[in-house]
From TrEMBL:
The keyword Cell inner membrane does not apply. Catalyzes the condensation reaction of fatty acid synthesis by the addition to an acyl acceptor of two carbons from malonyl-ACP. Catalyzes the first condensation reaction which initiates fatty acid synthesis and may therefore play a role in governing the total rate of fatty acid production. Possesses both acetoacetyl-ACP synthase and acetyl transacylase activities. Its substrate specificity determines the biosynthesis of branched-chain and/or straight-chain of fatty acids. It comes from Halosaccharopolyspora lacisalsi. It catalyses: malonyl-[ACP] + acetyl-CoA + H(+) = 3-oxobutanoyl-[ACP] + CO2 + CoA. This is Beta-ketoacyl-[acyl-carrier-protein] synthase III. HAMAP family: FabH. It comes from the Bacteria. Keywords: Acyltransferase, Cytoplasm, Fatty acid biosynthesis, Fatty acid metabolism, Lipid biosynthesis, Lipid metabolism, Multifunctional enzyme, Transferase. Pfam families: ACP_syn_III, ACP_syn_III_C.
């Protein structure tokens, strides 16, 4: 019996209409355009308007992904996010319902910036085991809603957005097959990337948290070191499992956390930084949406083409990391209807 494979067949993305520039942040915080650009590589980021949510962005990106491959329905919706619309229930079932997929399998995956790769691994297993024949894998986050208003570091880095891939059952010799995965975690670093309050540990104390504990915090220097080390090792492992050398990889779609991390990874791996998909200047760190948005923009910009060897890699809170390899299929990205109407550049 031939084991089926999970094949990428559609791609889409969406970012909110509102753009926040470095100059706008500088008018509210003790920072500057130069300070932000030289430390992060970011010039602008998109943020949701009041009342907007992760689910809203996920629906728009999913619609675009389905439209790119001419599909109206899939069997499952797997949403990677750390900013769900509500603490309970998961956001994916409502996203599926809004897409008209009321009977679909639907659930969230929480692995922060590694979430999209974890969601791909989970969904790939569902397809290869015969549980479903097709699925939407969505990465969406609205980190603007959990950042401290006066924290110039986190507010400079993060933006909101969503990206999605459509997967279908196929054969292993096809382009677009999700190949070898590498996943890992290190819970000793749990406090490096966190929102301290709001979970059962804090709530069980019966005490109201300090306001600062309700916002996202990150220890930049150790996170930088861990991100470069873990993603470089994971990328190398996946390339080897695919039967490739690192130098054989045409494009690295790595989590867009910081331009310096991309440069450090390129140096670590001994490959040109130009092989790294990059849209961080325009959208910032969009967390679980980062990898699919970078893929969409790489295809649209012509740096990623059918037949290219690609490795996706993410690193985030937990600590958690993961990578996967594939040969890129022939895809035409679709913008969300809102982004097309507003003329928002990719």
């Amino acid at each position: 019996m031939v084991t089926p494979a999970a094949v990428v067949c559609g791609i889409g993305g969406h970012v909110p209409e509102r753009v926040v520039t470095n100059d706008e942040l500088s008018s509210m915080l003790d920072t500057s355009d130069e300070w932000i650009r030289t430390r992060t590589g970011i010039r602008t980021r998109h943020v949701v308007e009041p009342g907007g949510s992760t689910g809203d962005l996920a629906v728009r990106a999913s619609e675009a992904a389905l439209r790119s491959c001419g599909r109206r329905a899939v069997d499952a919706v797997v949403l990677a996010t750390s900013t769900p619309d509500r603490p309970c229930p998961a956001t994916a079932p409502e996203v599926a319902s809004r897409l008209g997929l009321n009977a679909a399998v639907a659930f969230d995956v929480a692995a922060v910036c590694a979430g999209f790769v974890y969601a791909l691994a989970t969904t790939s297993s569902m397809i290869t085991s015969g549980i479903v024949d097709s699925a939407l894998v969505v990465g969406a986050d609205t980190f603007s809603t959990i950042l401290a208003p006066t924290d110039r570091t986190t507010r400079a880095i993060f933006g909101d957005g969503a990206g999605a891939l459509v997967l279908r059952k196929g054969q292993r010799e096809e382009r677009g097959v999700l190949g070898e995965f590498d996943l890992g975690s290190d819970g000793t670093g749990v406090d490096l990337i966190t929102v301290p309050a709001g979970g059962s540990r804090q709530r069980s104390t019966g005490s109201a948290p300090d306001e600062t504990e309700t916002y996202f915090t990150m220890q930049g220097k150790p996170v930088f070191v861990e991100a470069v080390k873990r993603m470089s090792g994971s990328v190398t492992a996946v390339a080897a499992r695919q039967g490739w050398g690192v130098a054989d990889v045409d494009q690295f779609a790595v989590h867009q956390a910081n331009a310096r991390i991309l440069a450090a990874m390129a140096e670590n791996l001994g490959v040109p930084v130009e092989r790294f998909a990059r849209n961080i200047e325009r959208v910032g760190n969009t967390v679980a949406a980062s990898i699919p948005l970078a893929l969409r923009d790489a295809v649209d910009g012509g740096s990623l083409s059918a037949g290219d060897r690609v490795v996706l890699s993410g690193f985030g809170g937990g600590l958690a990391w993961g990578s996967v390899g594939l040969v890129w299929p022939d895809l035409t990205p679709a913008e969300s209807e809102e982004n097309r109407a507003e003329g928002i550049p990719r």
